[in-house]
Amino acid sequence: MPSGVSQLPAEPEATPVPGRLGYSPPAGGYDEATVGPGSPRAHWAPFFGALDDLGPPELARRWRDAQHLIRDNGVTYNVYGDPRGISRPWQLDPIPLLIPPDEASHLEAGLIQRARLLELVLDDLYGPQRLLRDGLVPPALVFPNPGFLRSCHGVKLPGGRFLHLYAANLGRGADGNWQVLGDRTQAPSGAGYALENRIVMTRTLPEAFRDCKVNRLALFFQALRDTLRSIAPRNRENPRIVLLTPGPYNETYFEHAYLARYLGYTLVEGGDLTVRDNRVYLKVLGGLQPVDVIFRRLDDDFCDPLELRPDSFLGVPGLTHAARSGNVAVANALGTGLLETPALLAYLPRLCGELLGEDLRLGSVPTWWCGEPIALRYVLDHLAELVIKPAFPASRMEPVFPGELSRDERAGIADRLRARPWEYVAQTRVDLSTTPVLNNGQLVPRKMVLRAYLAADKTGFSVMPGGLTRVSASEGTMVVSMQRGGGSKDTWVLTSGTVNEFSLLTAGGRVELTRAGGDLPSRAADNLFWLGRYAERAEGTTRLLRGIVVRLAERSGLADVPELPALLRTLGLLCEPHPAVNGTGDPQKRVIPAVFDLKYPASLGTAIRGLRRVASIVRDLISIDMWRVVNGLGDFPTDLDAYGEDGPTPADVLDLLNRTVITLAAFGGLAVESMTRSEGWRFLDMGRRLERSLHMIALLKGTLVRPAGQEGPILDAVLEVADSGMTYRRRYLNSLRAEAVLDLLVFDETNPRSLASQLAALEDDVSHLPRPSRGAGRAPEQRFTLAALSAVRLAEPDRLAAVHDGTRPALGELLDHVGGWLPILSDAITQQYLSHLQTSRHLATTEPIRRTAAESGDRL
Amino acid sequence: MTQYHITHTTTYDYSQPVSLCQNVAHLAPRPCHRQRAERPVLSITPDPAVIEERVDYFGNPVSYFTIQEPHRKLTVSVSHRIAVRPETPPVALTTQPWEQIRDRLPWDRAANWLDAYQFAFDSRYAAADPKYAAYATHSFTPGRPVLEAALDLNHRIHSEFIYDPRATTLATPVAEVFESRRGVCQDFAHLMLAGLRSVGLAGRYVSGYFSTVPAPGKPRLVGADATHAWVSVFCGEAGWVDLDPTHDQIPGTRHVLLAWGRDYEDVSPLKGVILGGGKHSVRVAVDVHTEEPGET
């Protein structure tokens, strides 16, 4: 019996949970939880006992809540080519994988040995290459390997370590033995998802979690944090550490933002960093701030378009040389992807003997590199039993199972192996163990793979007491992949001792914008600016549309609604020309595209989509509640199919707009109440204020510059759309006067909706932005804001309200004047703070070539 | 012994200011037995904020420099004094049969064989393919001495392909060159390497200069010389032998060597990444001036 596998016969008196939930694993394989139908393994007994106490209905209820929690927290996983959009909710199963203490310590010892071995192999291949000369590693696995980065050869590493976070995929075969299926050495993903899974599970099954005595994860992340701090070439007391992500289109972007927030690092994209004087700097609003450590989630070759892969601008030009100069530490070290080469597994036992003088404790899946003639012969003779993979991971060839192919197809594979044998490896097909997952109230078996994580520490490596367990999508599926619809599980490593309660999370888990002054990345500022603009654009558009639709719903024709043409005119002013919206047809038909049409840039749907997209990018900068509110907008319909053949009725649209306006108001409220007044907030606020000014200008232009004969209903509608009706009535009761309305909406700086309020707030915002210390007088953005604000403050309400020849010329003039300053102001802010967000490109080419973020980064 | 004074100037003009420019240059001649070079003088305008020299993975000198002030024009100029010694190549007929080398490369771990083996693998611009194998096999007939066969391939590329500077750009894949039968020195070098690698042999890409000889009675045109590229083939016990498919010859004293690698990408004379710049144009002027012995 393999070490750590334990069994216990079921208690005879009661049918335990696995039996009651109908669990019956397939015969012949190894099941993690049971030794047969209804007979749990000993270490699962407390867990099933806790489930028993809970009962199936309560489990189902808890599980529904957990799924809401996942959705509300916005835990997503990007699936490439998914027509439903880039992000899909994270798939978590409520039944964790349980690992008993003895088995965990067996795995721990094996994994640490393996990490030490890989570290030594890297040290040699990027150094003296004795392993090649001594025939311990075939040169043909190194020389043509895209993972072997020649420009990283001989680089002296801070702290002398290559692997700071390393992961191994483990599978258990039918014999009960764990095997390493593959190594992730450059930027292993999933540790953040493991953490999120744990947080969800402790809320969902707190009793089971307590009863099972589960090890906590926090100490592991503390070790990782200590290591990353210790490798800083300078500022070791308080180094600046950034987490470099390929960007929001990468499949594990959620995790990047999540880990950045959890570990307290600044989340950056390549464009946020620049190399000057051989040092890496973060572009922040106040200028450039030195970076000491880069915790990168990018594949090796994407990290530097100058010296590595020339067609990738996800990285930082000059990074390799900065690392070579010893001025920045990159974790994991550049070039570590070399060891993700599956063919290397075949050589590890011998390498372990040579380099460590030990036997390899934890075996790999049996692997043959076809570049060895003997191995090739074996592989060709046993093709049907094997799985064929590329020798080098960069080729991204999908695994081939010759046993499932026709005779001809199998012969085709054999020809490919003979033609270029060095490009392939063959591995034994592991009959992976099964473990129960909850499916429609029943426990069903799924194949599983465990990803284990190790962090470098002072003396060697620490193993995460947990990991990311992934399960296959269906019972018949052999391949375990999140991209192919598989799910995940929390991994509970059980302890026989006491549980360490250490936690890295701050109390309550609520996250505020934490960036202190002066270090907000410029790109983040840009995104927050647009977050503010989209949020306000959506809110303003919703209020206007509601003003229109409520009138369409309540009354029958245009005749009894004199204010309707004015509101429709406002809609036309706000929106770029749209044949339907700006036409003269049925008002109902004119409103529908302005609400729903995603092809139309000024529609509400488009603004909401923009808001959600930008919010997902700045997820690490806004509070979780703000993110939840934005997530709630995911219900906004993206097409009209939901409303059946006749389309939505005015009542349907009104209901939608009412719900939307409340959500958006909540977002605005949180922006005011739950964000510190940092630079990031200033940019968000400037975006809001600019957009609200534009809306107010359009509203007044559309309704009051050319007054109609009966102005009462129009003034009423204007007050309603501008959300100022209450204030007005408190002051003036039912006496509707244009000069009083204009005073409230244009001049009154105590009214948070007035134009003057927006301009005064903008003036305050720009005066709080960091600026170069040199230079007397006001910056351009200060001058422009002041010009607009002064024009409003100096105008006279009575003159604005005066009508000449059917128009209000003074009002029109003022609105045009202020409206003219706003785009100039926006440009000035961009010029001053955001202009260095240019893209790099190569000399002697004309177009920047961009690789998409989807292509870099570890897949799950 | 021929003494050269070489100047090589590259000028970039930009329509918009470039705020940051980072570069890697292979512009200093690699020390090797048939060349003796003085330390080259590299002059760069505007002044680089960082300029550092090191030796790359293949043993070539390489410079890294950055310009951190806004500029609309970048000039990188290098001048060398270099003496090239004539060398007697091995007698082709006495070199080993090519198959012996092909079969030994994967297994011999001696330093020179291990070093050579890395040049037997595909690289971005010179990857093996059955069509190049078929082409090269006309030269690499069974049992033929390796240098004789390589010289034959060299000759065939020279005679069957047309030198045409308008036919290709830096980015033209070797497959297209093979199809159109047109190209420049760099294309012919890549094609030759693809052929050698396709039959299992090791070949290096060599970057350097070629001294032009003025037509009889005409003065030399300053700046008319060019950077040049040729290959080096591993001949086993006979070592590496350079071959120039563009001129159908074994490089002699008219070839000045800068650097070698797997293909152009490893040793391009100047590469860089810029921030800003708008549209840009590039001019390259190379002058290889023969100095009589005793001239200063």
The tally of structural domains of chain B comes to 2
Q: Roughly how many Å apart are the termini of chain A?
A: 31 Å
| Alpha-beta content class of chain A | alpha+beta
The ordered H/E elements of chain B are EEEEEEHHHHEHEHEEEEHEE
Basic shape of chain A = elongated
Report the biggest beta sheet of chain B as strand number plus sense, adding barrel if it closes: 8 strands, antiparallel
Class by SSE composition of chain B: alpha+beta
Q: What is the average per-residue confidence, as pLDDT of chain A, rounded to a whole number?
A: 86
**What's the CATH topology label of the largest domain in chain B?**
C8orf32 fold
Classify the oligomer.
Answer: heterodimer
What is the molecular shape of chain B?
A: globular
Percentage of residues in strands of chain A: 5-15%
Using only C-alpha atoms, the radius of gyration of chain A works out to 31 Å
* DSSP E strands of chain B, number: 14
Structure description:
- The complex is a heterodimer of chains A (860) and B (296).
- Among the domains of chain A are: 94-346 and 432-493, no CATH class; 366-429, Dna Ligase, domain 1, CATH 3.30.1490.270; 523-675, no CATH class.
- The two termini of chain A are 31 Å apart.
- Chain A has 27 helices and 23 strands.
- In chain A, 41% of the residues lie in helices and 13% in strands.
- In chain A, strands 5, 6, 7, 18, 19, 20, 21 and 22 form an eight-stranded mixed sheet that branches. In chain A, strands 9-8-13-14 form a four-stranded parallel sheet, covered by helices on one side. A three-stranded antiparallel sheet of chain A has the order 10-11-12.
- Mean pLDDT of chain A is 86; it is low at 1-13, 81-86, 506-517 and 845-854.
- The longest helix of chain A is centred in the middle third of the chain and has 33 residues, at 522-554.
- With 860 residues, chain A is an alpha+beta fold.
- By secondary structure, chain B is of the alpha+beta class.
- Chain B has two domains: 2-85 and 268-291, Immunoglobulin-like (Sandwich), CATH 2.60.40; 92-266, C8orf32 fold (Roll).
- Chain B has seven helices and 14 strands.
- Chain B has helices at 98-104, 111-117, 130-137, 146-160, 174-180, 185-198, 264-267, and strands spanning 2-25, 35-37, 41-45, 50-55, 61-67, 71-84, 162-163, 182-183, 203-210, 226-234, 240-243, 255-261, 270-276, 280-291.
- In chain B, the strands form three sheets. In chain B, strands 1, 2, 3, 4, 5, 6, 13 and 14 form an eight-stranded antiparallel sheet that branches. A four-stranded antiparallel sheet of chain B has the order 11-10-9-12. Chain B has a two-stranded parallel sheet with strand order 7-8.
- In chain B, α3 crosses α6.
- The two termini of chain B are 16 Å apart.
- The interface between A and B is large, with 34 and 39 residues.
